[in-house]
Each structure stands twice: as structure tokens, then as C-alpha cells.
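Bug report (template v2)

What were you trying to do?
Predict the complex of my protein with glucose-6-phosphate.

What happened?
Run completed; filing so the output is reviewed.

Input:
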Amino acid sequence: QFADDPKRSERFSLEAAGLFLDYSKNRITDETIRLLLDLARARKVAERRDAMFAGEKINVSEGRAVLHVALRAERGERYLADGKDVVPDVHAVLDQMAAFSDQVRSGAWKGHSGKRIRNIINVGIGGSYLGPEMAFRALRTFADPSLTVRFVANVDGADFAKATQGLDPHETLFIIASKTFTTLETMTNAAAARKWVLDAIRAEQGIARHFVALSTNAEAVRAFGIDAANMFGFWDWVGGRYSMDSAIGLSTMIAVGPDNFRALLAGFHAMDQHFRTAPLERNMPALMGLLTVWYNNFFGAQTLGVMPYAADLARFPAYLQQLQMESNGKHVDLAGKPLDVQTGPVIWGEPGTDGQHSFYQLIHQGTKLIPCDLIGFCRPLSPLADQHDLLMANLIAQAEALAFGKTAEELAAEGSHPAQTPFRVCEGNRPTNVILAEQLTPHALGGLVALYEHSVFTQGAIWGIDSFDQWGVELGKALAKRIIPELAHGAEPALAHDSSTNALIRRYRSLRGMA
Ligand code: G6Q
């Protein structure tokens, strides 16, 4: 394809919101794109997108609007949920967050004993954790270095122990991040945090100086003992995995400051505007979504690799796993009917170049087709000699090698031992998208996250599924509740599970000395 068409890279690339996408190294022709666009039209992707922006209740199984795009709307724009413009409320919370962040950053907000707050610990899980942690790591160089920011998600006590290790409770602020304020892990860790602080400050009334909440459930926040004035709200039209730019981003804002947080939102907004207005054939998220559908449904590819060539984006694949797999891991359509097509692929990845020294082997020479997104930034934030050139040379070379491979003839010309040649041949024709931005700034990060959000949306629209519910996750939340009392001390309870579950419970009890 490249040999036949010197303009291929020009034709199959585009720019939007400060991001450049080269999708020329995919198994596509003009006809492929034409047919995929026909599919998008047949599945009414543009109409569904417009319905989302219009605040329609497109999360049908929960009867909710899906309006995360309103979280990054500019003042004066209008987004309606149930006929009410939500943008003034969004900005009221952003202003409240900014005022609080400024107080913490300036040292005006003090702990109960009058000490300055130096440590921020976000307690939350899933959508109330992955985005903030990813963003904090990604924007490390923009963060106030005098603040320590940590995250507790896992109900494993080890996570809490590690997050609080070496910190002074008098200087520590906990952010309890939970949309529902009922999640087992978060409520358990929040209680542990409360005790950890109280053991040091020994004054109930001091709790208000060390705890704030991010939630939609004001009543539960009050019941926990957090002052309503220290609660930052959001709304049921913000899905957990789409909430890092809502109040859930408070830890990000405290770390990088309100101006940088606004730049992050502006990056999201720029990509939203592009997705909303660009024709599908020049629409970056729509094209990325269609390419995912292409490999998922027409080549049987099971996974999609996402490899950021940026150490600071180490948690981006984990963030995308939730965004994509929780959104599009569905088995019925919008009417509740079983689907006869494959839905969301498995998302995975690690930063380049690290991955090149481990699993890239399978991508180059294995028997599975693994399309990959390679993400890079042209100007380093931590320049070190010529190391950035080395990093980016690797990204560009991998995309080239995956596409063009290495033939037996090329190997022979290089003097490869004939006996080794079959082992060394790389077939090529391995697809990649290359996404480049100038620098990993807050604005670029916002654009990148919105790019994937809307790509996920496009895929969901093609499959005709509800990308905004998560009943499988809810099931998991309910299941453990039944087993928790069965693991408690005391005589063995009557166990009525299957034989495997019963045996696992008995083994656990026995090794804890309970049997
Ligand atoms: C996200 C999911 C899920 C959720 C967590 C935490 O879309 O619904 O990951 O974010 O279960 O829920 P809470 O914020 O309610 O604690």
C-alpha cells in the first residue's frame, strides 16, 4: 500500500485538539474507510453522539443522561439534564474546588493542631481512583513538590499501610472520593483513615480539618461526620469512569493548581468540540473507534495494546482498561436482546520502551493479531542528554518494524545465517496508530483522555450497547457481602455454596486458626 501510494501517510492522518493521529499503518484502503463510515451512518453514530450532547437519557438501563462533556463546558455554554442547564452548577463546584485547593496549597488550610497540610491521600476505588492516580502521575512535573499525594484503593490493609507510611497525621488531609458513598472498600478505608487521624489528634471536632468528601450522596457524607461545607458534589449524569474531570479530580487540582486543572479541562473541551462538529471522515475519535471495530469484528482481534512512550503515563493503560472494558464489555443491546457480534476488546499495555524488552515479541512474531496504539510526545518535560530522541526513535521504529517486518531476502542481504532465517523473519503488516502531541501538558492529557472516551462511545454506538452502565461490577459488590460474615471468628457457619466455594472458605478459616 505504501509503495503504491506516496501520499498514504498524508491521507490517513489528521490533527485535532493539539493531537496528531497517523492511522496509515493500518490494514485499510480508501474503500475500508468508506465502508466503515457507511457502517457508522447505518448505526447512527452521529445521531447518538448528538443525543449524548443533548442530555438525552442514553444510559437506558439506569435511565440517566450521560453528560461528562458538560464537566468541561466553558462558562456560558448550555447543557441540559432534565431540562435544566447544568453548567452553572459545574462551575460553582469548580470554583469551590479552586478556593479549597488554593487554601491547601498556600498553607492557609491547617490541620487540627495548627500544622500545615503537607500530605493529601485520596481514598477511592475504580472510577474514583484510576483517573486521579493516572493524572497525578502524568502531570508529576506540574505538581507542587512540597505536597505528598498518595492513593488508597484496595481494601487490602497493605494499601493503607503503604499510603500512610512515614506521614504525620497532623499534616495529612484525606479526600474520601465516592460517588455513592457506600462502596465497601472505600468506606472501610475511610474508617481506617478516621481512626488513624483520631489516634493522633484525639479530638472529634478536628476531623473537619482532615477530611473532605467528593460525592453525590450528601446524606451519607454527613452521616460519616464530614461537614457539608467540605463536600464537593457531582451528579448522577457523571459515570464513575468519566469523572476524573469532576469533583473527583480534587486531588489533581490540589497537586497541579487550579490553572493547570483548567488547562486539563480545556484539552478535554477542545476534543469534545472536535468530536461534536467534525464530519465523521475527519473525526479523530470516530475514526479510532471504527478502527477498533474493524479489527475486533472483521479480523477477530481479541485485544488492543496501548503503549505510551512516556514513563509519566505508566497508569494510562490501567485507566483505559476501566474506561473501555467497563463501558463496552456488554452482551446485550439497548433493547436487552443478546448480541451476535463481539463487543469490547481486552485493553492492555505498558509504557514503551519497557514493553519492547518483554511482550513485543508476541506482537512482532506471534500468531495473534494485536493492533496497538503508540503514544508519544515531542518535547520532553524531563530532558536528559539525548534520551528523548532515543525514546522517540524507538516509538517510530517500532511502528515501522511492525508494519514492514523483515523478509528472508532482507535477512540474507544482511548476512543472516540461513538456518536462523525462518526464526528471524517478521511478517509485518501489524497495525498501529501513532498518536503524537507536542508535550505531556495538562491540555494534551485532557485531549488524549477525551479522544479515548469518544472512541469508546463510537464503538458502543456501532454495537448498539449501553456503554454507561456496569451491572457486572454491581454483582461483584453484592457477592462479597454474603461471604464476609462467613469468614468472621466464631463457630463455622452453615455454608450453602458450591463445594469449591465452601472448601475455600473452610481453608481460609483453618489457616486463620478459626476451624
Ligand atoms: C465506574 C464504576 C466503578 C465505580 C467504583 C467506585 O464507572 O461504576 O468503578 O467508580 O465502584 O464507586 P463509588 O465512587 O460510588 O465509590
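What did the reviewer find?
Residues 331 and 337 are 8 Å apart (CA to CA). The two ends are 68 Å apart (CA to CA).
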